[in-house]
């Protein structure tokens, strides 16, 4: 009798001869083991689908109607069963072509008939340990994701609660800074400007944290998006300074996408390019290259650029680079950009040269 169901290791034995199944079960019996028996490929598939606790399958290769290779192939096709470990049990000579066929259909090991008791037990013991290690790892990952969700909610609440009183404080500081006594003292006026600058930077950081906490809540609904119109709208709403032009390189496509996600991506890249541009005649260009399954979008500028070694660092959370005295960012925006792209199968990268601007690329999967 199994004392603790949590420590149970369930094994499915598949062979068209019942006497072989009984013999194999007796060979492998243990206090924490549970066995399912199947005498055909169809019965094996039904058993796996009915029982989600199976950790290992010992599968006979030579069976009538449906052989072991076909059973393994069908199990591989199902996302719910593809991770179950399979050991082929076979009397066939293990020629290279048979071994390759077995591994390509999902087998992880072979046992040759007649079975060696010690070898069979040793291999099953290894897969039992592997099963519990994988289950423990899944539990750890699930717990980590749960904690991350709790931290995201906590971060959102704290940032949200801080934003309103800070906005009030900034407004009050702005009014105080206009008083005659402040304006008439260059030293106090300069100090007040420093305080206001710090408070505004803190507001930006809180807004960025709110965006970061909200990014997982972005809806998944898709619609037809004219990227040229999207870029035009973003450029108009950002109010770039007169010395910075936002242009489109060539034709931009009409794609099926989540509009909000795509807007946040382009807005993040373009606003950064505007913010840090240090040229009297600045420009930002948005373009695309068709890459089969993906659109390769880019946002290029003639700003200050950065060292090539920093093109990976810039995407890390809270990583801020030295822009030669320009206003610092929060180190959050580009990390959100990276996550939004990667969560739908794309990737991001950057190319840059100090003094000659940067190009930010991202792959957007076609639907």
TrEMBL record:
GO terms for molecular function: histidine phosphotransfer kinase activity; phosphorelay sensor kinase activity. Residues 157-367 form the Histidine kinase domain. It is an enzyme of class 2 (transferase). The keyword Phosphoprotein applies. Pfam families: HATPase_c (PF02518), HisKA (PF00512), Response_reg (PF00072). Keywords: Kinase, Phosphoprotein, Transferase. The modification 4-aspartylphosphate is found at residue 60. The keyword Secreted does not apply. It comes from the Bacteria. It catalyses: ATP + protein L-histidine = ADP + protein N-phospho-L-histidine. Its EC number is 2.7.13.3. Transmembrane segments: none annotated. Gene3D superfamilies: 1.10.287.130, 3.40.50.2300, Histidine kinase-like ATPase, C-terminal domain. PROSITE patterns: HIS_KIN, RESPONSE_REGULATORY. GO terms for cellular component: plasma membrane. Residues 10-128 form the Response regulatory domain. This is histidine kinase. The lineage of its organism: Bacteria, Pseudomonadati, Bacteroidota, Chitinophagia, Chitinophagales.
